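Hi R.,

Here's the chain you asked about this morning:
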Amino acid sequence: MFLHVVGVSPLEGYRLRMEFSDGVVKDVDLSGEIHGEVFEPLRASEF
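And the predicted structure, written out as tokens:
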């Protein structure tokens, strides 16, 4: 069975609430995943 993301909502900081096709809802913290120059604009608090 393949799962699909059916919904995403932003939370505080670099967290997302993700809803999957099987009905499961998980909060994901991406703060440890955004490294390097390409992500610098995302790390700016005003963005």
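The chain has a mean pLDDT of 90.

Let me know if you need anything else.
M.
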